[in-house]
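Why do we care about 3D structure at all? Because function follows from shape, and shape follows, mostly, from sequence. That is the central idea of this module. The next example makes it concrete: a single protein chain, its amino acid sequence, and then its structure expressed as tokens.
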Amino acid sequence: MVSKVTTRPNGAAIFGCVVMAACLMCSAVFTATAAAADAPVATKTGVLGGNETWEAGSVYAVPTSVVVPDGVTLTVDAGAIVKTNTAATGIVVEPGGTLNVTGSAVSPAVFTSYADDSHGGDSNADGASAGSLNDYASAIEAAGGTLAISHATFDYGTYAITSSPDPEQCSAAPAAAITDSTFHSGVEFEDCASSLSMQRNAFAMPSGYASMPLVAKGVGDASGITLSGADSNTFTGTGVHTMVSLDDFTLPVESAWDISGSAGISVLNFS
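And the structure:
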């Protein structure tokens, strides 16, 4: 089934609740995999003093938050592995800071748990271990800076990406773009981007994950979150794992936003 949200000539959008047939697929479950060979480990923490590139073939261990401040760019290359420790938010992107994640289809950038030996080996030297849901708070926090994320995977966090609760940090936040990535934990992006573009992302929450995979509020033009066609984001699983919430958004005058049942959404709440 395909639904369409349109705006009237005066710019007022037609809102409501759209309910579609859910894709009848099993909830995603993490499957234990063999430990990888141990990769070199660089421990990162605190405020970055200048531009940095985190490179392929290395693990970047984040025991406490790494802050990307005004005027600084952090680039996470294809094949780089970022491991976040228990209870920490990994990378915080402040106003004027920039995070570029530049993975590829064959070599995504990986954001995962410090305990996950399947990527980069036994980085914390604790013997054989595997990641678990809620091993860390979030991989990335948007706190007013620029986010451009492509071809990344996110495992074992309570959230993959969150936004700062500080309205002063987010008052002049620029656009954010997230494409071609795989999420095994949710995205909760509220009032911290002038617009949010999300295309070709796959959301597959693990069994036991209790939140919606995508919650977005106050992110400008909602049509940047693609829910139909070749560029659609997709949602697999059942129940809450196929529910999406979009609040306080806009649509350009005389525009249309297509929503397709093939995206896998069972319930779309918006206002």
